[in-house]
């Protein structure tokens, strides 16, 4: 017994009928088309992953720059609020 109750002989018979109906050239072309589609899909997925990684890196960089700017602004405010010892 093979796949889900289908024996090897039944698969061979179905394959033979498909080859007789469509011919080897059409099946070869169909296989090439499916292969190209899968290859294009994988390429698009990799480009999307790269794009997402770049966007997250940019967001992280912007967040770090904002944090540094906020720290510098708070430091400047503290300096402005503390009285200078030279003005006494």
UniProtKB/TrEMBL annotation:
Q: What does this protein do?
A: Part of the twin-arginine translocation (Tat) system that transports large folded proteins containing a characteristic twin-arginine motif in their signal peptide across membranes. TatA could form the protein-conducting channel of the Tat system.
Name of the featured protein:
Sec-independent protein translocase protein TatA
An example GO CC term for this entry is:
TAT protein transport complex
Q: Which segments of the protein form a coiled coil according to its record?
A: none
What gene does the UniProt entry assign to this protein? tatA
Family in the record: Belongs to the TatA/E family.
Name the InterPro entries for this protein.
Answer: TatA/B/E, TatA/E
Annotated source species: Nitrincola nitratireducens
Major subcellular site = membrane
Assembly, in brief, is: The Tat system comprises two distinct complexes: a TatABC complex, containing multiple copies of TatA, TatB and TatC subunits, and a separate TatA complex, containing only TatA subunits. Substrates initially bind to the TatABC complex, which probably triggers association of the separate TatA complex to form the active translocon.
> What is the recorded membrane topology of this protein?
Single-pass membrane protein
């Amino acid at each position: 017994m093979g796949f889900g109750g289908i024996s090897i002989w039944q698969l061979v018979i179905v394959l033979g009928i498909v080859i007789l109906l469509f011919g080897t050239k059409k099946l070869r072309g169909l296989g090439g088309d499916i292969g190209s589609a899968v290859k294009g899909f994988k390429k698009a997925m990799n480009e999307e992953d790269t794009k997402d990684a770049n966007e997250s890196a940019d967001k992280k960089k912007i967040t770090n720059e904002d944090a540094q700017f906020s720290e510098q602004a708070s430091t400047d405010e503290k300096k402005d609020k503390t009285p200078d010892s030279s003005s006494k």
